Amino acid sequence: MFKCLFWRKFKADFQYMTESKGIWKVIGASSLGTLIEWYDFYIFGSLATVLASQFFPKTNPTAALLSTLATFAAGFIVRPFGALVFGRLGDLIGRKYTFLLTLVIMGGSTFAIGLIPGYDSIGFLAPVLVLLLRLLQGLALGGEYGGAATYVAEHSPNHKRGFYTSWIQTTATLGLFVSLGVILLTRHNLDADRAKSIAKFNDWGWRIPFLVSIVLVVVSIYIRLKMKESPLFEKLKTSGSRSVNPLKESFGHKVNLKMVLLALFGATMGQGVVWYTGQFYAQSFIENVCKVDFDQSRTILIWAILFGTPFFVVFGSWSDRVGRKWIMLTGMLLAVLSYQYLFAQLLDTSDPKAKQELVEKRQVQQSATLIANSADSLRKTVTKSFFDDEMVQVETKTDTVYADASRTTVKADIKVAKTLGSSDYWKMVFIVFVMILYVTMVYGPIAAFLVELFPTRIRYTSMSLPYHIGNGVFGGLTPFIATLLTTIYTGDKLVGLWYPLIVAGLCLVIGVLYINNRVDPKIDD
Amino acid sequence: MNQIKRFAGILWMLLGPAAVYYLVKTAATEIGKKPVLDTKIQWAVFVVVFIPIAIGMVIFGWYAFKGEYDHLPENSDELIN
After folding, report:
1. Considering only CA atoms, which of A122, A139, A135, A128 is closest in space to residue A65?
2. Residue B75 and residue A255: Cβ atoms within 8 Å?
3. Distance CA A89, CA A214 (A)
4. Which of A188, A351, A381, A498 could pair with A397 as two cysteines, CB 3.0-4.6 Å apart?
5. How far apart are CA A489 and CA B40, in angstroms?
6. Which of B26, B63, B75 sits opposite A525 (nearest CB)?
7. Contact A204, A340 (CB under 8 A)
8. Measured distance CA(B20)–CA(B51) in Å, rounded
9. Looking at the complex, does the CB of residue B70 fall below 8 Å from at least one CB of chain A?
10. Which of A65, A255, A454 lies at the smallest CB-CB distance from B41?
């Protein structure tokens, strides 16, 4: 009797351990591939300036046009299109082979971008190829996330779906983290001299982050090839109840379309703007508005991501117990209520007027170079100011000194770069960390939420589209629209925040009114 | 609560065209101020991308107004049929 009970318990424990090990393999394989896809997608954005100089010379209007298309089209048009193409495929042939395909397309495109000769070598072919490959990247990304989230969710036990899918949710932020890290490491390690290293990076070193991707992709493909198809999809396949036309079923039938619209306007739209404001816009704001130097503006984000990432899992797991709705909506509410204050704090922290300058330490260097075929010269004045809290501000002013003394430069070109002191640096890390905490609240539980809204036979298609419109279009446009607003309404440096505030506020109201807090007891339907 | 959901539907239906009007007006003003190719493409992308979303908002409002969200589906039978 005792032996029998012991044996039964041992078998149950062993089964639990085996299943548990299995789910971690599923999560590992899915997350690694998704992380690599995000990494591939972000390095292009992070290296936009370098790529522009290599492939899209401003002096040539057609190349500049291709550059604009590469920036906008890939993120905002192609991603939802990729969601439709691969979502449909995933519901027809299966999750495993579809997100394997997206990984191959993404990895191949990224590697190929690293190999394309510059505009100087092959002319127009260079920007055309880069544009095509960037479009392929957008297409692949549109198909990846829905597949990975669905695949993990369909392997997860019902009471732990939020917890297990939250690991997939960490990948977008970790992809950004890895891309920033690889870029900074490459930029600083090509030569013992920092300036020479940066020059080498801008010349050819930028290719390394693209080429490195192929190693990661091959490893991930190998791991994914060994994975089995999702058990719920296998069941559908065996019973012959797969969808014949997932697009029509997802968007052509009112009963499902209304859920797609609810997912978009009541959840993913707000999640997208909170995600992009807390990470991309915050980094862009610190660099371009607060004028903090290139390296610090990125390492601030890197630290904040490092501290914030575990909270994806915390909130994903918590959502299994208290429901998805209120965690996501609380994140949106906190963002709406505090963004103005947090961004104002970023501005104040880097404001030299709030600090005491150590005037005796100020260094001014002036140099002048003659302008070719002219008696005028270009004067460069570099002023280095030191402040009581260790902040150092370097102001580079360039103006023209005319031979005709009665003429003066109408508007000098002034560039400012600040290196923050230790306490201000960590204060900024904390502020960005708070914003990333909001990101983890809105994003941690959302995969489980989306998976539970739709049935297995059209899940991949139905959840991918609202996700990529919310994240790619509403979210992806955040840095552009916010920056655009600051150029239209020049008096207010925080005016760019109105876009995320309005979108997140609207999504919050819709979410509160229409979404329910129910955790689906089973998604096997 | 269902009454609020339905009346709010009217608001969502109005929000779609209002957003498109504001977007097109701003696009025209900004292109007028700086009529270079970059500005045109940028605003064209915004308008092209947001018009279908605004239409989606109107449909969402219509469904809300008609009471489609009074009860959310509990299982797939309610979704597929």
Report:
1. A128
2. no
3. 24
4. A381
5. 19
6. B75
7. no
8. 6
9. no
10. A65
DSSP A268: I
Distance CA A160, CA A99 (A): 23
DSSP for B36-49, please give it.
SHHHHHHHHHHHHH
Q: Within chain A, which residues score under 50 in pLDDT?
A: 14, 17
d(CA A27, CA A140): 20
Neighbours of B38 (CB within 10 A): 14
* Domain positions in chain B: 2-70
Cα distance from A286 to chain B (closest Cα, Å)? 24
Contact yes or no for A261 and B56 at CB 8 A: yes
A286 in Cβ contact with A312 (< 8 Å) = no
Where b means 16+ CB within 10 Å and e means fewer, A346-365 reads beebbeeeebeeeeeeeeee
Cβ A91 vs Cβ A242: under 8 Å: yes
Sheet holding A413-419, edge to edge: A363-370, A377-386, A392-401, A413-419
> For residues B76 and A417, which has the higher predicted lDDT (pLDDT)?
A417
A117: alpha, beta or left? (left if phi > 0; alpha if psi -120 to 50): beta
Cβ of B79 within 8 Å of Cβ of A454? The answer is: yes
Residue of chain A whose alpha carbon sits nearest to that of B7: A513
Residue to substitute from B23, B34, B66, B80, interface A, most A β-carbons within 10 A: B80
Tens of pLDDT, residues B3-56: 899 999 999 999 999 999 999 999 999 899 888 877 888 888 889 889 999 999
For residue A481, give both structure tokens: 């629209």
CA dihedral A421, A425, A427, A431 (to 10 degrees): 150
Q: Tell me yes or no: is domain A16-350+422-514 CATH 1.20.1250.20.
A: yes
Neighbour tally for A115: CB within 10 Å: 11
Q: Which of A455, A499, A466 is nearest to A142 (CA)?
A: A466
Count CA atoms within 13 Å of residue A170 on its CB side.
Answer: 25
Interface membership of B53 toward A (CB under 8 Å): yes
Which sequence spans correspond to the domains of chain A? Answer: 16-350+422-514, 359-418
Residues A335, A503: Cα–Cα separation, whole Å: 11
Please provide residue A400's backbone torsions phi and psi, each rounded to the nearest 5 degrees.
Answer: -100, 135
pLDDT by residue (tens digit) across A150-160?
888 888 888 88
Residue pair A272/A76 in contact by the 8 Å Cβ criterion: no
pTM here is 0.87
Q: What is the dihedral of CA A254, A476, A148, A78, to 10 degrees?
A: 70
